[in-house]
Design brief:
Length: 359
């Protein structure tokens, strides 16, 4: 779909008149009184509410509209604490929307509705908060979802780092589409929609702790329309997962363990952008474990590979799609990598994370 800019969004969704806000968030903004209502009305309601309706403590959804799309609901929630709040290619607001949309769509669901709850640190700039909420609203339009209810809390300085966001999401499961981590079978192929590790690398560089000059951008994007293209040609897709914290390696270990199969990757087939590869080599990081926010691991039957890859490559979010490995049965739960030197190494699950607070 065409991209939506902040200026376009604000012209079509003008903020409602409200009393002038203070320049920073104060504890009064979380008190339940007029200050809180002014903050909510001028920053959140003005951007999220698509039509004037009475404000309540819950969203009321049309069951007939939901059941017309399927007979099961998918429900997820996630919290976002990224540092820094704005980083090359994205920000915490887009991340909070796209991350939850992606968690829904990889189940085979059609994402429809999100909640938005924020915990704000006393002293946070209200202009910065408005920028973040602007990006959330634009991301919701681009992902074709509505943010329908939420909550705001303010805590004393030092209790949180500027802003924490929680989003929960509801979607409707398509009939006959049941991707699941336990469904892998020997002979299946492992696909991915493009270069890995960009989000984790972008966050690392954005923290400014390294004197590096690089243009690595986060891959943060919604994946629901890409999933639409996948399931249209491969309704028997075995499993799908967005490779966020822990990266591709963690996702594949979860799949191998759940299905009690082995997975072998081909190192030369795994797409990695040159700047990310260089950063990993310099710092001793493995891109297989770096976080992504717009990469989808897809497992399909062998006979579906060509048509699935063609559908993925025809989508803007999947132009770099490729097959990176296959499922076997030699050692249940084992993930291995065939290196470019002809050797093989185990790709295990990390005890911790290479980078803290990346999503």
């Amino acid at each position: 779909m065409p991209s939506v800019t902040r200026d376009m969004f604000q012209r079509s969704h003008p903020a409602r008149p409200s009393p002038r806000l203070e320049s920073t968030v104060t504890l009064a903004h979380g008190s339940g009184g007029r200050a809180m209502h002014d903050l909510i009305d001028s920053i959140f309601v003005a951007r999220f509410q698509q039509s004037p309706v009475p404000l309540e403590d819950q969203a009321r959804l049309d069951l007939a509209a939901l059941t017309s799309l399927g007979d099961r609901l998918a429900f997820t929630t996630d919290s976002y604490v990224v540092d820094p709040l704005f980083f090359p290619g994205s920000n915490i607001g887009e991340l909070a929307v796209n991350g939850t949309v992606n968690d829904l769509c990889v189940s085979g669901a059609i994402p429809l509705y999100l909640t938005c709850s924020v915990i704000l640190e006393e002293g946070l700039s209200t202009d910065l908060l408005a920028q973040i909420v602007d990006h959330m609203a634009i991301a919701a339009v681009q992902a074709r979802v509505q943010i329908v209810t939420g909550d705001t809390k303010v805590v004393p300085r030092g209790s949180v780092d500027k802003i924490f966001i929680n989003t929960a999401g509801i979607g409707v499961m398509r009939a006959g589409i049941n991707p699941c981590a336990t469904a892998l079978q020997p002979g299946d192929r492992i696909l991915i929609n493009g270069a890995i590790g960009n989000h984790g690398a972008a966050i690392l560089v954005a923290r400014g702790e390294l004197a590096l000059d690089t243009d690595i951008q986060s891959d943060c994007q919604p994946l629901n329309s890409l999933v639409d293209a996948i399931v249209a040609v491969c309704p028997d897709v075995r499993a799908m997962r967005d490779a966020t914290r822990g990266g591709v390696a963690t996702v594949l270990n979860e799949f191998a363990t759940a299905s009690q199969v082995s997975i072998q990757l081909q190192e030369e087939a795994i797409p990695i952008d040159e700047p990310v590869a260089g950063l990993c080599e310099l710092l001793g990081l493995d891109p297989l474990y770096l976080a992504n926010e717009g990469k989808l691991v897809v497992v399909v039957p062998a006979h579906r590979v060509d048509e699935t890859l063609a559908a993925m490559r025809s989508h803007p979010a999947g132009q770099g799609s490729c097959c990176i490995g296959q499922v076997g049965d030699r050692s249940p739960g084992l993930v291995s990598l065939q290196t470019v030197f002809g050797t093989e190494r185990v790709v295990d699950v990390l005890v911790g994370d290479q980078l803290p607070r990346i999503c």
